[in-house]
Each structure stands twice: as C-alpha cells, then as structure tokens.
Amino acid sequence: MALSLEEIQNLNRQFKGIPPEEIISWAIGHGKKSVVTTNFRPYEVAILHAVTEVNKSTPVIWCDTGYNTPNTYKHAEELISRLGLNVKLYVPKQTSAHRDAVMGIPQIDDPRHKEFTEQVKLEPFRRAMEEHQPDVWFTNLRKGQTTHRDSLDVLSLSKDGVLKVSPFYHWSDTQLDAYLNTHKLPNEHKYFDPTKVLENRECGLHT
C-alpha cells in the first residue's frame, strides 16, 4: 500500500478520534498483507483484541527475547488461548543460557549492549518481517511513551517503507483501562525488556 507522506498526514488528521476498529478495518481493506507485532507487555492485549476482532487470522509476530518474566509468559499463554491468536514465534539463534554464560545482559553503557540488542531483538524481528513481507504493520505505539514515538502518529512509515498503524496512538492509560474493563481483558504489568533498561528508551524496532 503505497501512500505519500502528504496522504499519511491527511489520513492522520482524519483518524484522530476515530475508533480503533475502524482504523484497523481501513488498513486491512487497503493493504495486501497485515501483521501485528507484540511482546505481551502491559496493554498489548488491547491491540491484539482489536485486530483479531476485525481479522482473526492476522499473523501475530512474537519476538521472544528469552528474558521475559514468568508473569509475561503466563499472560501470553492466556491471551493466545483466549483470543485464538495466530502466533508466529521468533526467538534468538542463541539460547539465553548460552548468552548468559558468555555475555550476560550488558549495561546500557557497555559496548556489548548493541550486539546484545541485535541478537535478542533486532535479528529475530528482521527475520520475521522478511518471511511475512507485510505492507501493513499493526503496533500499540502510543504518544508519550518515548521522545521518538511523540514524533509519530496513528499512521507512520517504517524505515523499510511498511505502513505502521497504531490505532491507540492518542489513548491514555486511563482510556485503555476502560477498554480492557469493557471487554473483560486481562493486563499484566510485571514485564522486563532487557534491551531497554529504562522505560523511556527505544529498543530499536521503531527507529
């Protein structure tokens, strides 16, 4: 789905305040192949529920770093079963046990942190996108999460030209809590991302 930056800007103005399911329906209808990515972090259930309500068969790409908390893995299994997610699992080529023995989890100022992020997140993600070749990528990016994400919108283009669609971009935690309550969806806050360290850092997928 080739859209110019001007067309994307115009659509973003139109989509502000539009229900997520309408945005998702528009994107699926105008694209050729859609995927949704998730790491089952807090509030990810919202985008998973919204997308699968429109199209149950949408591939759900889960790049599991291998360092998730037990709570996250249990939460993931619950959502996969409850929502009938079409999960496509991608993991690093090296086990976390092997990596722990030779590298561990490098601190942010450690030169090895870049290699660590490449191994556990960026390479599996590239592999997933290369295999699926989507032209529409659903995410749960929201304004206020990071400085970079504040520069995006409901629609944006990835560095590879894939249309990123973030239907909940303008939503607050309070609004999402209400959405989860309305649809009786579980949430899980005990989440750990070994590549970010700080909550307001980018992990590299969206830059």
Task: Give a description of the structure.
- It is a single chain.
- Helices cover 43% and strands 12% of the residues.
- With 207 residues, it is an alpha/beta fold.
- It has a 6-stranded mixed β-sheet.
- β2, α4 (70-83) and β3 form a beta-alpha-beta unit.
- The protein starts with a helix and ends in a 25-residue tail after the last helix.
- The chain has a single domain, classed as 3-Layer(aba) Sandwich (Rossmann fold), CATH 3.40.50.620.
- α2 (20-30) crosses α3.
Write a short abstract of this structure.
The chain has 207 residues and is of the alpha/beta class.
Summary tags:
alpha/beta, globular, Phosphoadenylylsulfate reductase, phosphoadenylyl-sulfate reductase (thioredoxin) activity, PAPS_reduct_dom, 207 residues, Rossmann-like_a/b/a_fold, Rossmann fold
Would you spell out the secondary-structure blueprint of this structure?
Blueprint: H1 5-15, H2 20-30, E1 34-38, H3 44-54, E2 59-63, H4 70-83, E3 86-90, H5 96-102, H6 112-132, E4 136-138, H7 147-150, E5 155-157, E6 163-165, H8 173-182
Parallel strand pairs: 1-2, 1-4, 2-3, 4-6
Antiparallel strand pairs: 5-6
Domain Phosphoadenosine phosphosulphate reductase: 35-187
GO molecular function: phosphoadenylyl-sulfate reductase (thioredoxin) activity
Pfam families: PAPS_reduct
